Amino acid sequence: MLRKFTLSAIALATLGTANAYAAEFSFDGKNNNNTLILLQSKEQAKPQAGLSESTQTHLEKALTAADFEAEYGKTVEVLAPVGSDYARILVVGLGEKDELNAAAMAKLGGDIHGQLKADKITQVDLAFADVQGQLSNAQLAAQFAHGANLRDHSFDVYKKDAEKTTVSYHFSVANAERAQAAYQALAHIEQGVFLARDLTSEVATEMTPVDFAKAAKDLEQYGVKVTVLEPKQLKKLGMGALEGVGRGSEHGARLVVAHYKGSDEAPIALVGKGITFDSGGYSIKSGPSIARMKSDMAGAAAVLGTVKAMALSKADVNVVAVMGMAANMVSQYAIAPGDVLRTAEGLSVEVVNTDAEGRLVLSDAMWYAREHYKPEIMVDVATLTGSKVRALGDRYSAVFSEDDQLISELTAAGKVVNEQVWRLPLGYKDMLKSDIADLQNIGSGGPGATTAASFLQHFAGDTRWVHIDIAGNALSSKAKGEVNVGGTGYGVRLLSEWILKTK
């Protein structure tokens, strides 16, 4: 089922299997719906929305009784307001105007949208008074809509009775055309996020490396060149690490390449870990966490979603996503602990633990990106280590690099889109020594997230490189802000913001 999104003249279909009940937005004024939302900053003495005197009086009394001081995210609901045609008025606090930025507004849009859907509210007028701070009111309106539609997305293809409430918003904002244009740019990013979420949320038996390659091929309609290498081709190229990880599954490994060439500059290479299911191999996983291992391809989903976002945006950038895809399974053909794999880089790797397979598929994918595309910058994205989750939880991803400028740029981009990153150190290469090979695939001590990143550093060459560990960020068990339950699409907005604003 294709998920449709409507914004006035825009109708963009996203790939995947998400629901078809997106929020709807128009920026052309009030429509006299049953609910009015008033956004109020702390600097405003009282809400201003052209209300009648009796309604204004009623509203001010309600706000006083609730001790409402317009703190960010705080709300007061007034039912059947005196002198108004609205059934309810919801006043929403914005906090200090100087602190009101894109991230805050998108999160607020998501939270308010979740509240409206829970209350089965379907028709909303939303009034922007003179609240602009870091952004114009038109930009704030676009960010609110962006957050609301991101929150609206859900993966419910397997549910018999899926939620079908559609919220229709009519924004009252001074510059409707500017708001429309600002949102249209964000809508392209949303399509990349939705693709990444759907791919991540899909069950493992329906999202094999072959299925992922087919989903990537769908991007050709947007001018993206897609190449898929199969196991025999991987062997011929000497990509023994990627091929070896996929050997235990029915379909084997794939290397999927999606290239959007919007400029003639040297490309940015985005390399994604694509383990469509991670059993752990012979170092098999135990406990309930194995049920979430369908999301171990979230890095590949994120970089593919970013390429889609760039293509829909018709951005003047050259971006290639290189995705190492495999299912890490147990069979008579699977690699065993103690085996040695030869990477395309020429380095041999002793597989001490078959559950440390993500760095193996990334090693060959990174080599391929460097050798075939000569990128200016290479960024790999992976749900790589439990160590990262123990260090940072799910509110930050971990970034590793010796390039201070790239770390600074990605940190700034993350703050804009609520996908924040935190720098962790590289090092401990001595703990990757093997008695029988050039490297072993796990550290013999030290911090696991760092030793994993240091393993990958062997395959970055002289290219400017950043590793992003998104373990813990790929799936959400609770709806909050712009994210619903399921795949989060984490990384698409981060990478898109970074690429569009700094490259």
From TrEMBL:
Domain (Cytosol aminopeptidase): residue spans on this chain: 353-360
Active site, UniProt feature: 285, 359
Pfam families: Peptidase_M17, Peptidase_M17_N
Signal sequence segment: 1-22
Example of a GO MF term: aminopeptidase activity
Enzyme Commission number(s) from the entry: 3.4.11.1, 3.4.11.10
Record keyword S-adenosyl-L-methionine present: no
Cofactor descriptive note: Binds 2 manganese ions per subunit.
Keywords (A to Z) from UniProt: Aminopeptidase, Cytoplasm, Hydrolase, Manganese, Metal-binding, Protease, Signal
Names of the cofactor(s): Mn(2+)
Compartments where found: Cytoplasm
Binding positions (Mn(2+) 1): 278, 355, 357
Reactions accelerated catalytically: Release of an N-terminal amino acid, Xaa-|-Yaa-, in which Xaa is preferably Leu, but may be other amino acids including Pro although not Arg or Lys, and Yaa may be Pro. Amino acid amides and methyl esters are also readily hydrolyzed, but rates on arylamides are exceedingly low; Release of an N-terminal amino acid, preferentially leucine, but not glutamic or aspartic acids
Gene3D superfamilies: Leucine Aminopeptidase, subunit E, domain 1, Zn peptidases
Annotated residues for binding of Mn(2+) 2: 273, 278, 296, 357
Top-tier EC class: hydrolase
Main location: cytoplasm
Similarity-based family: Belongs to the peptidase M17 family.
Function text: Presumably involved in the processing and regular turnover of intracellular proteins. Catalyzes the removal of unsubstituted N-terminal amino acids from various peptides.
Protein name: Probable cytosol aminopeptidase
Organism: Pseudoalteromonas qingdaonensis
